[in-house]
Amino acid sequence: MQKKTRQEEATFEQILRDYLMKLIELRRRGASEDSIRENFFNFIRTAFPRINAEIIELEHYVPGVRVKGGFIDALYGDLIFEFKRKLDSASHDEGKGQLASVVFQ
To answer: In which element (H, E) is residue 61 found?
Structure first.
């Protein structure tokens, strides 16, 4: 694994800071999960340019799953993403249950 230079670390820190500031603003405005998801994937594309973001499947259908009618928000290989507008304990528990229904079906 290649070690990051100070310049790359500083750049990543700024990209992460910009992402988090935008996320705070989106949540403050009550933005949709789609907007939050798009902000996250913009962060991924910028922070990790070697990742092929084109292969991320959005609203991926998983038969037999009771998440949004059988759809998960995004899938990248075996990595599942579920986005929530707010992160209170009820949303956390709901998201955890949704992911568990995909993983343990």
So the answer is: strand 57-61
pTM score of the predicted model: 0.64
Calpha distance 13→68 (Å, rounded):
34
Q: Would you list the domain boundaries of the chain?
A: 6-103
Instruction: Note the pLDDT tens digit of each residue in 57-92.
Output: 777 666 555 554 557 777 777 677 777 777 778 877
| Burial degree of 95 (CB within 10 A; 0-12, 13-18, 19+) | middle
Strand partners, 20: none
- Distance, in Å, from the CA atom of 6 to the CA atom of 67, rounded to the nearest integer, reads 42
Residue whose C-alpha is closest to residue 81's, from 40, 31, 46: 40
